[in-house]
Every structure is written in C-alpha cells, then in structure tokens.
C-alpha cells in the first residue's frame, strides 16, 4: 500500500480511535452515575474540559475525513498517486497533531498551533485538487 492509501487508512483509524476514546469516557460517566446514558449533547458542551475537547477533536476529524478520502480516492482511481503520495503522510501527521493539541489544551499557543495544522491540511487539499483537476 502506498503513502496515500496508508495515510487514508491511518486517518480513518484515528477517527475510530477517537470515537472509542469518547465512548469509553462517556461510558465511565454513565457507569459512575454522573450522567444518564441519554443525556449527552452532540457537541460535548455538557462535558467538563477534556471531554468537551475530545468530542470536538473527534468531530473535527470526522468533518475533514471526507475531503481527504475524496482526494485520495480520486488520485488512486485516476492513476495520479504521484500527486498525493509526497504529502499524504504529512497530512496525516498534521491531523494527529491537530487532534492531540485540541485534546491537550485551549491555551492561545495551542489554539494557534492547531489552526496552523488545520491550515496546512487545507492548503494541501487545495493543491491536490488543483493538480488532480489540471
């Protein structure tokens, strides 16, 4: 498997891992009697600190996975993996870094780092789209 499909698989696996972590976190709250199973908000606003950040990091990953998947699959299906392979793993690393930073802190430096990691991903997606369409 080449870099693009490895990164796509890693991206999807990261989403699954974040989802499992969130499920375990919420299950612990339910089992400890701190929350009812049917009382969680979808955006995590009802959770303290790390729970809310974990929810947003997972949702953020889910929101950008389709763009990565579409571009990776378009490159693969069209035989143009040379467009995506050089930066594919860097996009995955930026996604991991963005998620981990999101979970760890909401300080100004952390938010700026997270924004830069996101911006890098969007720039790469735009570059890929232009190259694949051109």
Give structural notes.
The chain has 134 residues and is mostly helical. It contains 4 helices and no strands. α1 (3-31) packs parallel to α3. The longest helix has 29 residues, at 3-31. The protein is elongated.
Distance between the termini: 25 Å
> Over the alpha carbons, how many angstroms does the gyration radius reach?
17 Å
Number-wise, the strands total: 0
Assembly type: single chain
Residue windows where pLDDT falls under 50 for at least 5 positions: none
Mean model confidence by pLDDT: 95
User: Can you tell me the overall shape?
Assistant: elongated
Number of helices: 4
Class based on secondary structure composition and strand pairing: mainly alpha
How many strands, what sense, and barrel or not for the largest sheet? none
What's the SSE pattern? HHHH
User: Approximately what portion of the residues adopt beta-strand conformation?
Assistant: under 5%
Helix content: over 70%
Short description:
This protein is mainly alpha-helical and 134 residues long. It has helices spanning 3-31, 49-77, 81-104, 108-133. Helix 1 (3-31) packs antiparallel against helix 2 (49-77), helix 1 (3-31) runs parallel beside helix 3 and helix 2 (49-77) runs antiparallel to helix 3 (81-104).
């Amino acid at each position: 498997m080449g870099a693009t499909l490895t990164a796509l698989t890693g991206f999807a696996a990261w989403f699954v891992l974040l989802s499992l972590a969130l499920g375990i976190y919420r299950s612990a709250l339910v089992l400890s009697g701190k929350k009812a199973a049917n009382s969680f908000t979808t955006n995590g606003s009802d959770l303290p600190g790390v729970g809310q950040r974990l929810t947003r990091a997972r949702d953020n990953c889910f929101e950008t996975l389709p763009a990565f998947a579409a571009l990776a699959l378009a490159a693969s299906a069209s035989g143009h993996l040379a467009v995506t392979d050089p930066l594919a793993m860097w996009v995955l690393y930026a996604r991991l870094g963005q998620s981990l930073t999101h979970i760890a802190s909401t300080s100004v430096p952390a938010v700026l780092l997270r924004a830069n990691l996101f911006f890098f991903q969007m720039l790469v997606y735009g570059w890929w789209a232009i190259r694949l369409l051109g």
